[in-house]
Amino acid sequence: MKAGKLSELILSRSVLKKIRNKRKEILCGARTGNDAAVMKINGDLTAACAASSSFSYLPRNFTDSDCCLTSVLLNAELTVLRAANSVSAEWGEPFSLMPVLLLPEGFEESELKKVVDMFEKTAEHLNLQIAGGHSEISAYVKRPIFSVTVFGNRKCFISDNTKAYGQDIIMTGYAASEATRVMTALCRKKLEERFAPLYIEKAAEYTCELSVIKHMETARQNNAAWMHDLSETGVFGGLWELGEKLHAGMEIDLKKIPIRQETIEFSEYMACNPYTVPSLGAALITAEDGNGLVRELERQGIPAVVIGKITEGKDRVLVHHEERRYLEQPR
């Protein structure tokens, strides 16, 4: 198997099908398209999500050799954001996190302090509290590995029987903002072989805010039906997972998917597909009145656009001018 998140096909047949034991407290558990588990504890709804970090979609030989600690700190930040975004996408209001740190032998205490500072800084920015966790030095890892569990309150629960046919699909944020952030932070020397430093700096500035908690909060308050975070999957993978979650098809206008010009150029140069790499900072939302929701999101300073519709059946179609092609299952 290749590096990165397990494909939806492998996840379904080799992981999800093996999970059979059921508990009444778990209202929504491990399933394709779910951003977080939804549990009922003492009569209250609580959403929790675990996430781990990976830059496996970037060619290793393009990463600057002298930015190891920068990479580690960025991993710590993005792992927290990824988990918090996922809880928010399942209608949760994140309030705490518990990080797990597996560190290689030789990792310095001074570096550990910087990692913890990054976890705390990111948690404070999102108004989360670090409630506990685990850390250890392991001879089995070559570089730090982080896993974060975020907990959030959830005040409502949508039945799986709710039909989404005919609803608009809105995308917030921009495709591959996370990949752009990683490239400008870790591959700057490579990018400077082609692009001007000011152009790279401009791209780095607009990728500073990768949380979608405000996106989801605004959507919840304005009649959103379903939401899905793109932190792990990228746009195409997220659309497929949304279709699986809703047991529905869709028709998407490819040219309406929001993406910045810098991202297109960087991705082409770095041999990455901006529609398939993880897109932390972007989300999918469905609603009866997509244009109305877009207006509300834009009033909050959140970029959003209607990119398609939910359809009956299972066909997931990408439309580009006169061309129509089917969205493929992530592998």
CA gyration radius, whole angstroms? 20 Å
User: Uncertain segments of ≥5 residues (pLDDT<50)?
Assistant: none
Mean pLDDT: 86
- State the order of secondary-structure elements, H for helix, E for strand: HEEEHEHEEEEHHHHEHEHEHEEE
Distance between the termini: 10 Å
Got a strand count? 14
The proportion of strand residues reads 25-35%
Largest pleated sheet: 7 strands, mixed
Which range best describes the helical content: under 10%, 10-25%, 25-40%, 40-55%, 55-70% or over 70%?
A: 25-40%
Query: Helical region count?
Result: 10
Structural class of the helix and strand makeup? alpha+beta
Overall outline: globular
List its salient traits.
7-stranded mixed β-sheet, 331 residues, alpha+beta
Walk me through what this model shows.
The radius of gyration is 20 Å and the shape is globular. It has ten helices and 14 strands. β4, α3 and β5 form a beta-alpha-beta unit. Strands 1, 2, 3, 4, 5, 6 and 7 form a seven-stranded mixed sheet that branches. A seven-stranded mixed sheet has the order 9-11-8-12-10-13-14, with helices on both faces. The model has no long low-confidence stretch (mean pLDDT 86). The protein has 331 residues and is an alpha+beta fold.
List the helices and strands and how they pair.
Elements: H1 8-14, E1 26-28, E2 37-41, E3 44-52, H2 68-89, E4 92-104, H3 109-125, E5 129-130, E6 134-138, E7 145-154, E8 168-172, H4 177-186, H5 188-191, H6 197-206, H7 213-221, E9 224-229, H8 234-246, E10 249-253, H9 261-269, E11 283-287, H10 290-299, E12 304-311, E13 316-320, E14 323-326
Parallel strand pairs: 4-5, 4-6, 10-13
Antiparallel strand pairs: 1-2, 2-3, 3-7, 4-7, 8-11, 8-12, 9-11, 10-12, 13-14
Helix pairs in contact: 2-3, 4-6, 4-9
